Amino acid sequence: MQGSSVKRAARRIKRTWAVIAFMAAQALMPPVLHAQLPALGDGAEMGINAERRLGDRIARSLYRDPDYIDDPLLVEYVQDIWRRLLQGARQRGELLPELEVAFAWEVALGRDRSVNAFALPGGYLGVHLGLIAVVNSEDELASVLAHELSHVTQRHIARMVGRQGAEGPWVIAAMILGALAAGSNPQAAGAMIAGGQAVAVQGQLNFSRDMEREADRVGYGVMTQAGFEPQGFVTMFQKLQQANRFNDTGAFPYLRGHPLTTERIADMQARQQLLPPVAPVKLTMTHALLAARARVLSNADVDSLRAAVAEASGGAFATFPSARQAGVLYAAALAASQLRDYEQAARLQVRLQSLVQGPPAERLARLLSAELSLAAGSPKRASELLGGGAAAPAMRSELFLWARAMTQAGQAAPVSQQLRTWVVEHPKDAQAWQLLAGAYMAQGQTLSAVRAEAEAHAARYDYESALNRFKAAQDLARQGGKVDHIEASIIDTRTRQIESLVREQALER
After folding, report:
1. Separation CA 285–CA 358 (nearest Å)
2. Residue 349 sits in the same domain as residue 259
3. If you count Cβ atoms within 10 Å of the first and of the last residue's Cβ in the chain, which end, N or C, has fewer?
């Protein structure tokens, strides 16, 4: 099944580079072969609003990519770390008020097994599931996110882009997308970089040595200010060093965007001398379960799923520490469910349940049990595990599982009530809108369902698809019959708003 994974990567790269070719052709810029990065402190940088617009343009492509994944549990885990880091940066004075207001500060997860994370213009952050799977603690993950956050707060991206001129940012947007494609398959993407602007700008994507050292220094202070252990920065750096010794076979594209220079290594060694001896990071049970989830979701081919199931019965399993055993069982149960072997998934879940300790891990095991029950066609059992009845859970992960279970069980009315409240408070939650569309459709409320589908597209910045659905909703309203006139009025207003956004996007081209 490895061939199917390669084909999927090739399709993604082909699609991404088609976007690049179109954008580069539109820009009509001569290649800038000898541009240099401005030094730190140089005033040559793009403005905050321009950087946000550039980030929005790149984010629109990321959110529409099939490998973008909104897994509520993993999103919750990463965003909790991200929020704490933002608070730490705010307390240290690294996050200026005008930057905090203007930028998005959003995290996007990619269903990719490679170890990578990347900062984008406008306060967007990308994280591959492979990174979550390889780190041993939230402190190690926080060290990487803090480094990326510091590239944003120190305006490193703006300094790089600002030197490209008035039209250059849009070409760089295309090249950043190309670099992300190269992270998944450097050989295939490298072969497609044939010359012209692609080659010209490719050299501008890596941060300068001084910028990398500054991101290390500021990121280290931010993560410790946020309450994370400094050892996480050290041990993550050691992981990267070890991977770097093997010349990066492609599993660590992070090293290509953030090479370990002698200066960075020397700085980290100096920091280590100020710390007590660093013991190996102990794998916590909570992180073990989430890392296991990331591994399964990023390795969904049949061979990988079967290997995950087999590990739970392998001879070495008994020698593993309890946290690792829990992670192996979690991965095996989830993999068995994806292979549609629901009985084996249930047996593995029972073994996991007897092993987990502590409220966070117990919660993750319970949610997995509900997820397995739902996949096996037992929505009532899933609903019971989530509290049962029409009272919706407060947490996003529980709420969305509950919504799916109740809708499948034929009880969509309370789902639509609860999700309406949720989207009022979280209007950019695309998955919530999609679940709401399903609940409306199950009740025969077609107009509301189509409007919710449109809002889901809009939340992913896919304004053209959103406009198509809003116009379809307008057509439904004009057909007469029993029409909710308030809903029809909202649809008309939103249609005009989305039409304006589509025109703005057209002008960018």
Report:
1. 9
2. no
3. C
